[in-house]
Amino acid sequence: MNPVNTKPYQLPADATWFITGCSSGIGRALATHVAAQPGHRLIATARNPASLSYLPDDNPAILKLALDVTSPAAVDAAFQAAAAHFGESYYIDVLVNNAGYPLSGDSEAVTEAEMHDEFETNFFGTVRVALKAIAVMRQSPTRRGGLIFNVSSVAGVCAFPGHAFYHASKFAVEGWTESVAREVHPDWNINFCIVEPGAVKTNFETTSKKHIKPHEAYAAPDLPARQLEVFVKKGLEAGVGVQPEQVAQVLYQVAARGEKVPLWLPLSGTAIMLITAKLQGRLQELETNKELSAIDKDQAQFKLN
């Protein structure tokens, strides 16, 4: 496969950041961090712009916008507003696709509309915003390039019961990001990073999450989804998770350190442990079943350079 992120990324001193989902959690923490950096410019977005009141109104380097990522027209309008606000100096150096929400519920209990809504925000919303940013970055006459963070989750690698459509949306984000990272021309200098946080101390498991009532066939307390709910509740009560400010600091560090950008970035020891176990399990299963799987072993093999 062709390599990605082949050159060290150099964050410009006057970098412009475009961040979605800035009303709370990781988005708010990162917007606050970027706003405090001298010379940087910030485009902070949220469904409800009133939730961005923590950012100043009188700083021309900060633009606060309403953005519903499920609306193509709203995405177009946000980028047009940013271009109008910053004028000839308009550019997007760093995009952070952070808007999203979790949907929990037994697969048989989730409606078609709820499935589609989850994908519209978490996957298609991410794609819409990323494609607009890519278009800005690739048209730079100076090959200024850029960096796109697509916030996935450990749930984009490891799947647990009771969250099938949330997992599916994050798996889709991961697959799409890896593919588009291999589509862009190396000379455009566009870097991609799939962010895979573990538990973060936000409203993710409370007001942000959409809970679907358990399906009657899955209501027994000994079923895996119900056991996971108990486990998650205990974790919340125990204060498990990293602070959103820690995530924000690492994302800024990745952008500013002048090194190659990792395509995948698990965040937290728990995320590393879970992803490692998942990959080791896949490798073990590949080894166990390789004789069964290699149905073309007697045929000519096509080798990828």
Automatic annotation (TrEMBL):
GO function terms (MF aspect): oxidoreductase activity
UniProt KW GTP-binding keyword: no
Cross-referenced Pfam families: adh_short
Keywords assigned by UniProt, alphabetized: Oxidoreductase
Ketoreductase domain residues: 15-203
Family assignment from sequence similarity: Belongs to the short-chain dehydrogenases/reductases (SDR) family.
Record-given protein name: NAD(P)-binding protein
Organism: Aspergillus japonicus CBS 114.51
